[in-house]
Amino acid sequence: MTEAYTPEERRLEWLYGLLGLYNGLVVLLMAGFMSLTQEKIITTMSAHAFLTTLPIVPLPAFKGFLASVGAYALLLLLGKLYRHGGIASGQRHLVFAAEIGVCMLLMRSLNLAYDGVVLLAVADLMHRYQGENQSWLLLGAMLGLYFMANYNLAIFQRHVAPFDVYAAYYRPEVQSVLLAIKNGLISLNIVLFVLYLVLLVQSKHHEKERIASLNKQLEEANVRLRAYAIEAERTAETRERNRLAREIHDTLGHTLTGIVAGLDACLVLVDAAPGAVKKQMEKIRATAQHGIVDVRRSVKKLRPDDLEKMPLKQAVKKVIAEFGASSGVDIHLVELGWPEKLREDEEEVIYRIVQEGITNARRHGKADKVTVTCGLEPGRFYIIIADNGTGCEAPQQGFGLRHMEERLALLHGRLRYWSDNGFTLEATIPMGKNVMDNNGEDNG
Amino acid sequence: MKRGFALYLAFLLFMTCFLGWYLTRPKVLTVGLFAGSNWNVPEGDSYALLEEAIKRFEAEHPGVTVKYVSGIRKDDYSEWLAERLLKGEEPDIFVVPGEDFNLYASIGALQPLDRSMNGDESFDPSVYYPRALDYGRYQGISYALPVGAVTTLMFVNKTLLAKEGIPIPANNWTWQDFLQICKAVTKDTDGDGRLDQFGVYDYTWRKAALTNDVPIFAEDGRSADFSGPHMEEVMRFMAELHAVSKGQEVTAKDFDMGRVAFRPFSFAEYRTYKPYPWRIKKYSSFEWDCIKLPAGPSGGNGSIMQTMLVGISARSSEQRLAWELLKTICYDPVIQEMVLTKSQGLPVRRDVVESARAQELFTNSTPGSDEMNLKTVSEVMADSLTEPKFPRYKEAMNLADNRLFHAVQENSSLSNALSQVQKEINIYLQR
């Protein structure tokens, strides 16, 4: 425990200990004084005169002393439990209520001569106080305590033997000294309490400052991270472009160069040796064939990794889960149906639409909740991506929407989007026999 | 688990033992009272009544012992009781001195008795003289029961009146009769120029006020009323009475020598001095008897009743037993009867006082009182008043005595003097 304490907290604990010790001393002094005076009154045969000035029969001297000291010990114990005990919030309130009860009991057994113990209870309450939302609660509790102390005074006033009556037993000059001591003790307690409060407030304030500074650092780190992410994206894009260029250069460029060179040779040979041309053409065809294979391979390399490794369903779920986890957007996938069999290009389009859709929802719509619904209707497959973001009345092209439209158009699909309570995107792709037929017709 | 069960069993066993011990432990009740009479007269065996009550109580409640501390003088009793209270060792049941009653009732030292009184089938508060029972009330709540009482009566020197040829006044006589007799008997018999035979000794304005229906103090003892017309009558009467002896001081010695016709006396004093041997020792030279106090123009032949109270400590751990013991002391007809024989006071149960057996006991224990019919005494008791019992009553009375004495002496304007006295007393009371 100790290593978790900052020096400030340690100082606070130390002061609280001092407050407790001091109050204990005062309780001991007061109770002792009243008990001794009571004994003295009995031995000097002024019991009757003393009783006539009292509103009650006081407790026997020793019993009164024990009651005060016992109540104080109980108060300290409850205070410790309230401050450090590992107890639930409800139980803690119970402990505090008990603390107040014991406090009142103690004040009563001390004949209301000393009310400083209330401050001890307040110190406990302040110690546990945290957060702005509790400030009203705290204010209420403090007011309650204050009223209770006064109420206590009003109710018990006629039911205790006042300190003054005990003091009145002594000579007037002794009386004034006694009163001065009593008031001094009370004042010193208030000084200690205020000191404790100042330290407490300081400590809370410093903690708040520390948290604020940490927050600021975090914010800065975030900004840097975002810049870095954009940078990384750009780098990746450049690299990809380079790779593409290289790929085109290596495959298509190579093949095309070969074809052009071969065709040049053909042009020279076509009149002189048609046979050789034929041979040459065959070579060119082989080269083109080879080029096509190369291009296919290249294109395949551009396909998303996930689709390569797993079926579309899993890939979509994975991209949703990953994006959700990394961006903090709550993405909900509603699966009303998946087509049984899809072509690779269709899979890629669907995958890309989902990826682009949720990215847009986050980036442009600032949404924190996205619902992705996919389902089958007779003859078509649809995906609806709805978010709770800011929406967009007239979406600027370049949000990737045109790109999506183009991709969908290749599949005879359709893209619709509108804004209400966010932004909603609906993509439909024709499915099933008709499509196949259409494709067949197109091909034919 | 096994150890827990054993512990639980041990705890249960312990609790059973403790409960067994607690329920069967010998119970001890303590009683606080003083030696001597409550009514400032010599009394032979002051604990006889209590001893008898204890005997009866212990017989009825086996296993309960009652103890008391003997030898506390009446003068020390108030302080002794206060000390016990401060130490928390007060007796379960104790005699409450009248002047301390309000104090102890108000600071909660006395247990309120109303619940026990109402809840006890065998207890009927209406058998008491209402005034006696009221004396144990504070702000309408009963805190103590009366055990005995005495009233103040007017002593009459039969020998002197016979010599002057004046018949003994009847019980319904008035201030005018009183004044006339006083005037008639006050004279200088030996011719030395000084008065040596007087009408009355020790008749104070308080007694006059009482028989003229003047409630001087408010119930709570916070204010006094001296300025009413009744009080003026009292003062005028006292002035006239005072004038009879022409300023000469009547002394106790004059009375003892048989030279005074009247002297107010408490019933206890009457009983103490009437029978042998006190009678021989003190007033052997004349025959005497008692009648009611004379009635004022606005009052009746009232009297002052002094009541002895017993209460239960509020901190007593045996409230039920304490109530039973209190009932034995204050309510048991046998013990009430014994008040007549073992003390100088009177029982406070009216049915006991008016019984034939009581009259017999009384005549036997107080020889030579032919005039004294207990029925008459009972009547006096029934309509007598009790003295206020607020804490500073005695001091306030002494102050009033002093001031009124001066007012009478100076013979200044009566109503002015009275308002002045009232002002002073009120200032004292409200301090």
Automatic annotation (TrEMBL), chain A:
Its EC number is 2.7.13.3. Keywords: ATP-binding, Coiled coil, Kinase, Membrane, Nucleotide-binding, Phosphoprotein, Transferase, Transmembrane, Transmembrane helix, Two-component regulatory system. GO terms for cellular component: membrane. InterPro entries: HATPase_C_sf, HATPase_dom, Sensor_HK_TwoCompSys, Sig_transdc_His_kin_sub3_dim/P. Residues 345-433 form the Histidine kinase/HSP90-like ATPase domain. CDD domains: HATPase_UhpB-NarQ-NarX-like. GO terms for molecular function: ATP binding; phosphorelay sensor kinase activity; protein dimerization activity. Residues 204-235 form a coiled coil. It is an enzyme of class 2 (transferase). The chain crosses the membrane at residues 14-34, 65-82, 134-156, 177-201. It catalyses: ATP + protein L-histidine = ADP + protein N-phospho-L-histidine. SMART domains: HATPase_c. PANTHER family: NITRATE/NITRITE SENSOR PROTEIN NARX-RELATED (PTHR24421), NITRATE_NITRITE SENSOR PROTEIN NARQ (PTHR24421:SF10). This is histidine kinase. It comes from Selenomonas ruminantium.
From TrEMBL, chain B:
Gene3D superfamilies: Periplasmic binding protein-like II. Pfam families: SBP_bac_1. Coiled coil: none annotated. InterPro entries: Bact_solute-bd_prot1, SBP. PANTHER family: ABC TRANSPORTER SUBSTRATE-BINDING PROTEIN, ARABINOSE-BINDING PROTEIN-RELATED. This is Carbohydrate ABC transporter substrate-binding protein, CUT1 family. It comes from Selenomonas ruminantium. The lineage of its organism: Bacteria, Bacillati, Bacillota, Negativicutes, Selenomonadales.
